[in-house]
Amino acid sequence: MMLHPIKLFPASGDADHMRYKVVFLNNVFTFFGIVSFSMGIIRWRVHPLIGIVDIVFGLIAFALLWALRRNKQRVELISGIALWLCFLQFLTVYFLATGNSTRSGLLLLILAGAFYLKGRQMGYQMLAILLLLVVGNHLTHLFPSEYGHLDILSLCLYLLGQFFIIRNYECLRESQTNHLKALNTDLEALVKQRTEQLAAANTALQVEKENLKTLSSTDFLTGLSNRQHFETVFAEHTHTVGRKISDALILIDIDRFKSINDTHGHVIGDQVIKTVAECIKKNTRLSDIAVRWGGDEMMIYAPRITLAQAAKLAEKIRQQVHARSLPDIGQISISCGVAMLRMGDSLTQLLHRADQALYEAKQAGRNQVAISAAE
Question: How far apart are CA 109 and CA 269, in angstroms?
Fold first, then answer.
């Protein structure tokens, strides 16, 4: 019965503090009520006034126990009322029960309860009141007392000693709490820092992974897709497309590139390749794949496009390349072969038809676009 309230409060945060106070008061009211009521009956014959005081305060303790069970959220108010009622009872016993030399111990008990339930401020207030009343009564003899000067001095020293013990305990507890809070703050900051570092490292790793993926699928000189990447994409694409295929392949070759290399060197030859690649990238769609197939040979794989649209795209690129003029070389030109993907085509078959169209463009005088005769 005495520990029953502990089940009614969650064990976390501020609720813990309230929960402990409820348990403390529940146990104290029960014990105090039984003791006060019993002592009141025992003292009735010896000292009727003290007996009545004990019985009344015992009944008050039971009333507070009942109030606490019905209003647990008002534990602060109930604890305050209980504290001051106990204070009055203990003072009454101290001043009136002159035959009991141990009654001063009640003052130590109420002071400890004040510090625990209400904190330092009320503990200091009660300590000051107790010292003033005890010393004041001893000097004025308002209530009879068998205590001598040494007894009163000892009691005051006991009260002050208890004050210093509790105060040091409170300071130590606060110091430990603040230290734990500081450690927790430092730990949280360290965890946050490590989390941010890990997130940054993961981001950097992901970026590096994407960069490596891009490097592995991109031609270093032109920035176009490389041959291996295109072969992989083509195989996946043709494996997943439906029966209605409308994809085109534009095969591009730089006219007289071997002569440019032999005459001006590979550095100029690389510049020519990059110029053609820039024109290709400028005119391709997001869905198109521009590829450097090898050497000076490049291609555009254009999905969902008609033969006429593919030929028009090739012609546009041819015109833009021919409009360029490079130092020491002048104008350059390309020849293009266009072929359409058929159902069941392999990459080799599609390339063969595009290459035949490219050969026809070369044979017709270069710098032009030819469409596969098989289309």
Answer: 101
| Segment 300-357, tens digit of pLDDT | 999 999 999 999 999 999 999 999 988 888 899 999 999 999 888 899 999 999 999 9
CA distance 129 to 24: 24
Residue 3 CA to residue 357 CA, distance in Å, equals 96
pTM of the predicted protein model = 0.49
Question: How many Å apart are CA 37 and CA 87, to the nearest integer?
Answer: 17
Residue 247 φ/ψ, nearest 5 degrees: -115, 145
Q: Which residue has the tokens 């391709």?
A: 284
Q: Report the SS3 class of residue 253.
A: strand
Q: Across the strands, what pairs with 113?
A: none
Q: State how far the Cα of 20 lies from the Cα of 1, in Å rounded to an integer.
A: 15
Task: Sort strands 248-254 and 297-302 into parallel, antiparallel or unpaired.
Answer: antiparallel
Pick from 105, 104, 65: nearest CA to 81? 65
Helix-strand-coil percent breakdown of the chain, rounded to 5? 70, 10, 20
CA dihedral sign, ordered 21, 22, 23, 27: positive
Is the Cα dihedral 313, 316, 317, 318 positive or negative?
Answer: positive
Length of the chain: 375
Copy the structure tokens of residue 70.
Answer: 């019905």
CA atoms within 13 A on the CB side of 13: 3
Q: Would you give the distance in Å from CA 67 to the centre of its chain?
A: 44
Spell out the domains of the chain, with CATH numbers in brackets: 4-185 (no CATH), 227-371 (3.30.70.270)
Please name the residue that has the structure tokens 């993926």.
213
